[in-house]
């Protein structure tokens, strides 16, 4: 029996066409899901890397300020006030246009209008007077690190004192800071020997950087 020549011209039937469309759709879903997952992974990695870099940059700046904390002429203490998340002190770190001058600084936590929290530094410029130093009425603010959530503490500060008249190695101990910013409980001859700073997003532990900073003028 001879084959009907029209059979080769019929193409796909309706069932075959529906099956092909279904298979194509399933493949597109799989490819789209994998692509989206890949984009999300890249975005999360980039965000995490940026957070790590930001916290490291913040730590470099904070370390520079804290390392050269010292008592200016005419002032009783190098530390104005302190707490577990803020520090106001005087530093000879050369953070402004004047060298060998005690800049007043604060490192602390601020909040945006939407509740997001950030780590900042405020710097007051010094002016020499006959009796010591005065500082500018307004500060220059620098935002160093910001977290995307409204909870969590992106900055933590621990304090350590020692007695330099004997041995700082033997007498070094932790100092509990006040709950609200205030004076540290350090009595002469003890001095503030060092601080330990943590900067980063508590929700992303990999971004948190912790570093001890020894005050070069403490002993």
In total, the number of strands is 11
The portion of residues assigned to helices is 25-40%
Number of domains: 1
SSE sequence, one letter per element: HEEEEEEEEHEEE
User: Structural class, from secondary structure content?
Assistant: alpha+beta
Largest sheet: 5 strands, antiparallel
If strands are numbered along the chain, what order do they take across the biggest sheet?
1-2-3-4-7
Rounded to the nearest angstrom, the distance between the terminal CA atoms is 111 Å
Q: Measured on Cα atoms, how large is the radius of gyration?
A: 30 Å
Strand content bin: 25-35%
> How many individual helices?
2
Uncertain runs with pLDDT below 50, 5 residues or more?
none
Mean pLDDT value: 85
**Cα shape:** elongated
Structure, described:
The chain has helices at 14-67, 168-171; strands spanning 79-82, 87-91, 103-111, 117-124, 126-129, 132-135, 140-146, 155-162, 173-175, 191-199, 209-214. It is α+β, with helices and mostly antiparallel strands and 219 residues long. It has one domain (47-214). The strands form three sheets. A five-stranded antiparallel β-sheet has the order 1-2-3-4-7, with helices on one face. Strands 9-8-10-11 form a four-stranded antiparallel β-sheet. The chain starts with 13 loop residues before the first helix and ends in a 5-residue tail after the last strand. The model has no long low-confidence stretch (mean pLDDT 85).
Keywords:
alpha+beta; 219 residues; elongated
Quick gist of this model?
With 219 residues, the protein is α+β, with helices and mostly antiparallel strands. Strands 1-2-3-4-7 form a five-stranded antiparallel beta sheet, covered by helices on one side.
């Amino acid at each position: 029996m001879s084959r009907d020549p029209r059979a080769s011209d019929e193409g796909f039937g309706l069932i075959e066409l529906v099956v092909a469309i279904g298979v194509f759709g399933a493949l597109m879903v799989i490819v789209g899901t994998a692509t989206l997952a890949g984009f999300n992974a890249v975005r999360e990695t980039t965000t995490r890397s940026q957070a790590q870099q930001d916290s490291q940059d913040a730590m470099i700046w904070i370390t520079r300020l804290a390392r050269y904390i010292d008592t200016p002429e005419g002032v009783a203490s190098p530390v104005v006030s302190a707490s577990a998340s803020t520090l106001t002190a005087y530093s000879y770190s050369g953070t402004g246009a004047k060298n060998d001058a005690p800049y007043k600084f604060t490192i602390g936590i601020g909040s945006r209008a939407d509740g997001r929290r950030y780590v900042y530094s405020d710097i007051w410029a010094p002016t020499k007077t006959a009796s010591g130093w005065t500082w500018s009425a307004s500060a220059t603010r620098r935002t160093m690190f910001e977290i995307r959530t409204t909870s969590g503490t992106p900055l933590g500060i621990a304090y350590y004192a020692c007695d330099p008249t004997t041995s700082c190695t033997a007498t070094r101990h932790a100092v509990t800071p006040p709950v609200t910013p205030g004076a540290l409980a350090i009595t002469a001859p003890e001095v503030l020997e060092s601080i330990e700073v943590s900067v980063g997003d508590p929700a992303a532990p990999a971004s948190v950087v912790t570093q001890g900073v020894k005050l070069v003028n403490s002993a």
